[in-house]
Amino acid sequence: MPVRVQTGDFDAGREIASLRAGDRGVGAIAVFVGTVRDRNDDADVGRLTLEHYPGMTEAALEDIVAQAKRRFDIHDVLVIHRVGPLAPGDQIVLVAVTGSHRGAAFDACEFTMDYLKTRAPFWKKERSKDGERWVEARASDDEAAARW
Amino acid sequence: MRDATETAVRLRLVYLARLREAFDSSGETLMLDHEAPTIDDVAGRLRARGGAWADELAPGRAVRFAVNHRLARRDDTVSDGDEVAIFPPVTGG
Lengths: 148, 93
Description:
By secondary structure, chain A is an alpha+beta fold. Chain A is built from four helices and eight strands; from the N terminus they run βαββαβββαββα. A four-stranded mixed β-sheet of chain A has the order 1-4-6-2, with helices on both faces. Chain A has a four-stranded antiparallel β-sheet with strand order 5-3-7-8, with no helix packed on it. Chain B is α+β, with helices and mostly antiparallel strands. Chain B contains three helices and five strands. Chain B has a five-stranded mixed β-sheet with strand order 2-1-5-3-4. In chain B, a hairpin with a 2-residue loop joins β3 and β4.
């Protein structure tokens, strides 16, 4: 399965091993892992809750992976994105790309993340001692996606 | 003989994230009696309710629409039985 949306954590090493298994032509594996930042310096750190739209989120991620495979000369792509409650330091997302050479693998990995940030239906809600607030989308993410 | 209800379009609306809280609703069934309603027609119908609906769906507000799990434009038409989701710009990753 090229995309997974799950509450549980993932083991990047194990996922990479699975992704490349049986493909001796792989010369490059580009990987991105996104984690929850601790945005406060004090001890009372916040919690992040990831919401998604079951059905559309998976379809949107599959479409992004399909686009990456069409646009870049790569072998395979894996995307895992967690949902539900997460704490600072937790892993949120994994994007792994296998290819023969590093250029296309790096590009496809970055493309996939840029498109995920602007097109995949997820929404983050932060909770801190000051209360709860929904994270706002960033213009820089749209600019990054527009480069491709 | 055509029945008036034959032109009715029944939609399943889904509200997500901050909009679910603003509308105080996760979704509802909406009946429209247009021939070929567009996303704009749906938004207009909801805006007419006033309050948070008028506020969040006002022109210029960054709102996204999806029809049957695919992103939709304002001038896309919707059909009987479609699921229309309304949500803020995404913030995953």
